[in-house]
Design brief:
The protein is of the alpha+beta class. The protein has two domains: about 55 residues, OB fold (Dihydrolipoamide Acetyltransferase, E2P) (Beta Barrel), CATH 2.40.50; about 35 residues, no CATH class. Helix content is about 25%, strand content about 30%. A four-stranded antiparallel beta sheet has the order 3-2-1-4, with no helix packed on it. InterPro entries: CBO2463_dom.
Length: about 100
């Protein structure tokens, strides 16, 4: 994948969160300050300890910058296809429970 150039200077800030999900390959973190939820691969978490629910974490993150005004067609199609599959699965489950 080609590197893109950002138009704005990097503005990393320290963010903190709490581990709320642990899976085989991922970690779910609720960000403090009601900023949302972040899910990352477990291999990206730096720790000298075994990961446990409730542990606090900190990391640097900058604000996302949108590259183009128009969405990329292949991503739009993939999202629409995913949504269609989810709706079909929900409809099937709903009709089976009746």
């Amino acid at each position: 994948m080609a590197e893109r150039e950002l138009k704005y200077m990097s503005s990393e800030c320290m963010y903190e969160g709490v581990i709320v999900e642990l899976h085989d390959g991922s970690v779910g973190i609720d960000l403090k300050g009601r900023l949302g939820h972040l899910k990352v691969p477990k291999r990206m978490v730096i720790s000298e300890y075994d990961l446990k629910l409730g542990q606090e974490v900190g990391f640097l993150m900058s604000y996302p910058e949108v590259f183009n005004e128009e969405p990329a067609d292949h991503y739009v199609k993939a999202i629409e296809y995913r949504d269609k599959l989810l709706k079909e699965a929900a409809d099937k489950k709903s009709s089976e429970s009746k």
